[in-house]
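Entry 0007
Protein: Shikimate dehydrogenase
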Amino acid sequence: MTLLCVPLVAPTVEEMLADAVAATAAGCDIVEIRLDFLQGFRPREHLPILLRGCQLPALVTYRFVRRPSPLCIPPMAYVARIGLFHTFRRHLGISGALICLFVHRPSWEGGQYEGDDTTRFEALRLAMELGVDYVDIELKVADKFMSFISGNKPEKCKLIVSSHNYECTPSCEEIANLVARIQAVGADIVKVATTAKDIVDVSRMFQVMVHCQVPMIGLVMSERGLMSRVLASKFGGYLTFGILNAAKTSAPGQPTVEELLDIYNIRRIGPDTKVLGLVANPVKQSKSPILHNKCLQSVGYNAVYLPLLGDNLASFLDTYSSPDFSGFSCSLPFKVDAVQCCDEHDPVAKISDDLCFTGPGSKDAAISPLAGRLIVVVGAGGAGKAIAYGAKEKGARVVVANRTYEKAVNLANAIGGQPLRLADLETFRPEEGMILANATSLGMYPNVDGTPIPKKALNFYDVVFDAVYAPKVTRLLREAEECGVKVVSGVEMFIRQAMGQFERFTGGIEGVVFYRAMFLTPCMPNVLLFLTIFCSQLLKA
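Output (structure tokens):
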């Protein structure tokens, strides 16, 4: 079982002990006591208090302040120390009270301590003598530390030898060499932390972890490395870190304990767990992980849904193509790219420039509330195409407004609609009773003040729909309501497309369970009810 460890980074002993109590109550397994964060740290006074006060097993760390430095690549001979063709499954049988891990991290390893090694080593040795469960020492000084303690380490205490790379994630061969070098200095547990410049970097850490024959902590820092923290138990990681709240972080990209336990349900993640996720940039604002994971848990489906901060969709899909990674959703800016990456397409999903509708729409158009109505679609990307096509199929007359006019022209021509420059939207008023649908990212977190149209122009419309759902009430919707216009939140579209995704991810389990996980807006005009249901069916492909 992968342990869940909470770093204690408070400036005082009293605050650290309070956080240790909170970690115990939250259901964590171990706490990391970061001595380098303590102000006025006095080892012989403070260490006994900290160790007696922690109900959980403890890891002690005492790190120096970080100074950027390149990763040292060890000799190739060390590679022989790793069985790269045998997946290890290790369990040390730790149970009961929480374990304490002591770390006194130097500045050059991402810590706060700027003193000398001797003072640091004395504190770590004292922690060992007092019965601490784990001590973390950096590879750079591991030999020196072992000489300092004359190789005398209490049997109960496990020595973690760590390496932190704050610049990048090296190749698999380089990480494997590093692991072998850490083993060679006498580590009980290997820890390697790197930094993800691209989300595909995480795959290299996974490859080394699953073939390592000794207990290993393998983490990739930054938001792009989140999956390394959530999926630690899937790939054999000894422990992963979760913070009590955003103000108590000890490394970039650490999720909260609540997220790990309640959203990602890491206690249920194992080697056979399927990985699903949303590939987008940005992705932090998405509510999809909350919704999908609750529903996966409710039906007992062995999968986890992650927010995946990507930079290149084709590269991502090429890297994570094994059966373990079984399904992905795509959002901005990859909606159009996704069509190019697919081997098969729903005919509706790929609207090409030579596709032109000259008739009134589908055979059902005459009975649709949209039939004959004028709908102005703002945006010509993936969502804009889906809404424009769906509206046309329901018999609506479609106007496409876009910042890049050429894209508006291309989409309008494809569906037999009318293009419009975004700057002209302010004065566009050919008739009363129009419908406005925003399919751009304007107003989406974190740029919540954005809006595609001035407030005074909203009076021209009967209904305003915003595909943005984070925040739920965007500036566009708020100003439309102030003008007395009916509004529909993007939550409607979000839930309906999520239902379709869920059925595809799970091989046919009905997405009706989503309604138990999130509430719908209280009321919804029939006009856009038809539109959002129809468009969601287009987007789920």
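Curator remark: The first helix runs from residue 13 to 26. The chain has four domains: 3-66+106-250, 272-345, 374-494, 495-539.
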